[in-house]
Design goal:
Layout (H helix, E strand, L loop, with lengths): L1 H15 L2 H4 L13 E4 L10 E3 L5 H18 L5 E3 L9 E3 L3 H4 L12 E6 L2 E6 L4 H13 L3 E2 L6 E2 L7 E4 L2 E3 L5 E5 L6 H6 L14 H4 L12 E4 L2 E7 L4 H17 L4 E3 L12 H10 L3 H16 L6 E6 L16 E6 L1 H5 L10 H12 L4 E6 L13 H14 L3 E5 L10 H13 L5 H12 L4 H18 L9 H5 L20 H17 L3 H23 E3 L5 E3 L7 H17 L14 H13 L7
Parallel strand pairs: 2-3, 2-4, 4-6, 11-18, 14-15, 15-16, 16-17, 17-18
Antiparallel strand pairs: 1-9, 5-6, 5-10, 7-8, 12-13, 19-20
Length: 623
Amino acid sequence: MKKLIVIFVLLLTFALYGCSFGFQWQNSLKPKGENITIQLTDKNNNPIPIIYPVKFTEKEQKAAETLQKYIKEIYDIELPIIEEHKLTGTNFISVGDTKLYEGLRNTFEFNKDGCSILDKNNNLYLQGGKGSGLINAVYTLLEEDLGCRFWDRENRESVPKIKTKKLSFVPRNYNPPFITRDPFNYERLNGEYMEKNKIHGYSSYGFVHTSWMYIPQGWFEMHPDWYGMINGKRKPEQLCWSNPEVINEVEKNLRIYMAATNDDSYHISPMDGVPLCDCPKCNELDEKEGTKAATLIKALNTICERVEKDFPDKKIMTLAYNDYYAPPKTIKPHKNLIIQICSDHADWVYPYLTYDETDYFLSGLKKWISTGCETITWNYTLDFDHFLMPYANYQKVAKDLKILRNCGVTDVFLQGNYLPGIQSDGYMKTWVFSKLMWNPDLNVKDLKKDFIYGYYGKAAKPIMEYENMLDDLYIKNHKNLVVHPKEEYKHSENPLILEGGACWADEELYTKEFVEKSMVLMDKALSLADNEETKKRVLAFRTSVIYLYLGKHLGFLNWENKLTKGDFDPEKKEYYRKLTKELYDTLTDLELTCVAETNPKENVDKYINKFYEIIDNDGSEAK
């Protein structure tokens, strides 16, 4: 009897705590609804064909070939690809705008990236919008219905092996709420990875902060009055948007760019980090309209009106940012002017508050939308002074994306580490954020668990425990964390530029107990890695916790290159040295050179050398 009880307890333990023996990965993307199952072979056990139209497009050909490739990997069966008119049987998979698909058309209207996965008479039909819709349909089927995963920019994937020849899916139509979906991290910089995860790189000709593209900074000596007045003196740091000659020159060069390229929009925006012109003419209009954006918007409206006749389908994009964050009281943006509002007044000041927990960003966004202009967003998702600092913002970003979707925003850009560096759990953040931008209603905790147990294998459990600790810290503390708690930032209708920029080290959030336990969990994860590939992935993840640990004990360099002194323990010198070497070796193996946007940009050696300097000098900087 005792043996039976022991066996029962062991079985119950395995059922309840399966992760101790190897947690069973679960598909967080699995669609809701009733499954339809089709047979991939006909009655003679021959593979059914993938069909596409007689006059197929490159997109249809690529979609068919992509589906064929993964069906072969999953089911070990190669489906032939044929043109629709060559079909002889009754069973098939239709890709694209086939005649057979015509009978399934309904009132559903695709947006550019929308897709459909439909069935009729035990056949599967894939279709999509004119942008990336069709290839999105293929990857949606592979990810959500079949459980494929495309984990990272190194093209590491998980592809299930299904022994039957049956393909099950949930019929559905879907339009993603956001057309531009860009988790702008270095970890996503791979075109194939982006396509598989259904994300788009942000695109506007010139990208952003483009003034010198239209009027070079080097022309200052010839035309000083074309440049902004700052503190009473003309400087080659911004343009003066009230000067008619500036408007004429920008228009002239814009026309050249528009005639020579096929872009949909062209960025005309002030340079970064510098206030706009405060000359008497600019100030007169700006003060009347209650914002430094007034003169800029008026100038861009004039340019839009002039070029509209010759380029009616092309648009201009500009920023609402820093001291030109708020919209003018009476000047409405031209219908061809897109406003890209930045969340600096929210994410830099209150990095852990959601947009409905602080009024700045959401009120500004709603005011721009109320002007009738197309309004998109530029949001910030990490500590730019410490890429590797743990950053417990998954729940914040998940909620913020729902808020943006509900406001009617159609394009989102989440700026992370665009430099060759790795941010805290950057591979997971990039993957999770890409899923949330495709569908903000997904459960963020389920997505994290999906990634961790799918990507880290037997080392997953302590990593999951660490991430749960981060989530708990966020829930308990996020409302108390304010970076720049100045009264003028909290109450001003037209806030000033934030002093110090987007830089913070979360000293209050990460307690000594949290840091010590995090290192224990990371050591456990490394010990559980049962192959070189998993070990490499765990080492990359550990960099964040090691950076936090060393920063707490040796000190953090801030954006001004000043050191925040750490809690140095002389008895741990060799341990600090060991961790510093591991951090450097891992970053070097990953070919990464940046751990911060500031201080300066190519800075791994600088930060590592600073750690060694403090170790060698018993907790102090060299004199």
